[in-house]
Amino acid sequence: MTGIGLDELGYDNKLYILAFDHRGSFEKMVGGDHDKVAGAKRLIWEGFQRAVDEGAPKDSAGILVDAQYGPDVAREAIAGGYVLAMPVEKSGQPEFDFEYGDAFGDKIEEFDPTFSKVLVRYNPEGDKALNERQAAKLRRLSEWLHERHRKFLFELLVPAEEGQLAKVDGDEDRYDTELRPELMMEAILQLQNAGVEPDIWKIEGIDDRESCREIAQLCRREGRERVSCVVLGRGASDEKVDEWLRAGAGLEGYIGFAIGRSIFSESVKAYAADPDGFDRDAAVAKISSNYRRFIDVYEGAHAPA
Fold it and tell me: CA triplet 25, 150, 222: central angle to 5 degrees?
């Protein structure tokens, strides 16, 4: 590992991220021009601020927003003293690449976020050359960030390979339950061994508490004692997200969540349908309520580990 000692790696404060850095999927949800998409992001930002005003813990509250549609929101978040995460990856790509190419560092330094975030699709049993290319670019980012004492947030997605789906008769729910936890652990191990060192891993929801415990322990192996995990919402139903939150809450190494669409989709769809005539205050209140409810679920689920 270059540029940082393991004792400097990690982040272990509580963290509840409202994630709205979506770009391609957001354009489809909202439609319209740049200003309309940016307006939807501002709506979410207002809901987040309302949530803090209404009791969400400011010290643990954070947002994940992009520079394309939310630059002003990002600057306001920093000025307001909130945790800010911003994406580094190109949106919607099957292979990780830098949104701003070799100038990725300039953009990070321009906004100075708390966390630089990547979304990576990485199946450890998938295309070996693809995985090696991704790992090399991710190591470059990891080392650049840590040489500058910046924090790294890594969203790991493990899409199923055809052969893996065949093992569970094409049932994606069975893949999620029976195969994905082990594959996620192998992916984390491969990436760590390739020199990729996140401070926080965004983990796709897992139903089984013991699997959550094993993943957290793996993320903290061999001196990575402050490296942590947060639960990813994946746009699932409230009931499913609640289940994932309860599986991880209270375990050593889990510190919170990063949830997006499950919090804001209803309000953003109302905005998209009629930006001028929809009930803005009700939409903002709904975002606030949904965000605070997930915090309550996570904090209320702290059972003995």
Answer: 100
